[in-house]
């Protein structure tokens, strides 16, 4: 028998939620992948763990017997792994850092060059993902810190602000007319989007909700919408004239790679670009030093 921590987490996730779809999303698996993992575990145990109905997924009697043992083993293994990771991190010998893809591509390389010049013996692993994904990596102890725009407070995490930000309107040159908030200003109000095609981030993006709230507040109705998951996709579509993209101000570092114009949107929607780490775990000095290097590179490029 070769039961893995991955299988235990899949089993516990489905047992808790009673839903394969939600569990697959939380574990960043496809639904087919999650189902295959559960089937592997059932095969190894030679028993069915779940009854699947049209309304819910419930534990079988065997599943109920297995549940407390699975919870204990998963908890002990996760805690032991976290302790071992913390031992290495306190020594500063390794860092696992998570970023959104745009920042990983545009700020991390220069930050790494400067940081490793002073810390050549530190091993750094870079992970890219959505804000939710990288925050969850910190929650589970799989990353030391995640860098991005985080809006909701999460129990067990602490957030450190690196730089203030607002929102930008980005569009193909000459395609749309900005509406400055005052004569001589190089900004635009939300009126630039009225009845215009809009390249929006998907609903799971916190930036999407900020933009939607502002559009509602200022009573601006947009035209056709195109929803995209990644900021680089939004910039590419804006460059090709598909509409006006609304992106965080700190993302203007990527605008130089595209033939686009951008204006800060007024009134400002203010928030912070931050990094999050686990509460109660003293961060290694190398993490604090990397964050300062990252902050200085961001400031130089925005």
From TrEMBL:
Keywords: DNA-binding, Transcription, Transcription regulation. GO terms for molecular function: DNA binding; DNA-binding transcription factor activity. The keyword Magnesium does not apply. One of its GO terms (cellular component) is cytosol. SUPFAM superfamilies: Periplasmic binding protein-like II, Winged helix' DNA-binding domain. Coiled coil: none annotated. Residues 3-60 form the HTH lysR-type domain. It comes from the Bacteria. Belongs to the LysR transcriptional regulatory family. This is DNA-binding transcriptional LysR family regulator. It comes from Pigmentiphaga kullae. The lineage of its organism: Bacteria, Pseudomonadati, Pseudomonadota, Betaproteobacteria, Burkholderiales.
